[in-house]
Amino acid sequence: MKILYGMQQPDEGTITVNGETVTFNNPADAIARGIGMVHQHFMLADNLTVLENVVLGAEKLYGIGAKARTKIKEISDAYGLNVRPDVLLEELGVADRQRVEILKVLYRGAKTLILDEPTAVLVPQEVEALFDNLRELKAEGLTVIFISHKLGEVLSVADEITVIRRGTTVGTVEPAGTTPKQLAELMVGSELPTPETEESTVTDVALLKVDGLHLSQTDLDGIERVILDEISFTIHKGEVLGIAGVEGNGQSELVEAIMGIRDPDAGVISLDGTDISHAPTRARREAGVGYIPEDRHRHGLLLEAPLWENRILGHVTERPNSRGQLIDIKAARTDTERIIQAYDVRTPGIDVTAASLSGGNQQKLIVGREMSHAPKLLIAAHPTRGVDVGAQAAIWDHIREARREGLAVLLISADLDELIGLSDTLRVMYRGRLVADADPATITPEELGSAMTGAATGHLEHTEDSAADHEDDAR
Amino acid sequence: MNKLTQRIDKERLLLGIAAPLLAIVAALVVTALVILATGKNPGAAFNDMLTYGTASDSQVYILNKATTYYLAGVAVAIGFRMNLFNIGVDGQYRIAAFFAAVLGGALTTPGWISIPLIILCAMGTGAVWAAIAGVLKVTRGVSEVISTIMLNSIATAIIAYLLQPGKLAELQSGGTVISTKPLPKDSYFFQIDTGAAGMLWGFIVIAVVVGIAYWFVLGRTRFGFDLRTVGQSESAATASGVSVKKMVATSMVISGAVAGLIGMPTLLNDSHQFSNDFPTGIGFTGIAIALLGRNHPVGIALGALLWGFLERTTNHLEFEGYDKEILGVIQGVIVLCVVIAYELVRRYGLKRQQQRVGAELAAQAAAPTQKQEVA
Question: Which residue ranges run through the membrane (chain B) (predicted)?
Answer without folding.
Answer: 12-38, 58-80, 92-109, 115-136, 145-163, 198-218, 248-268, 326-345
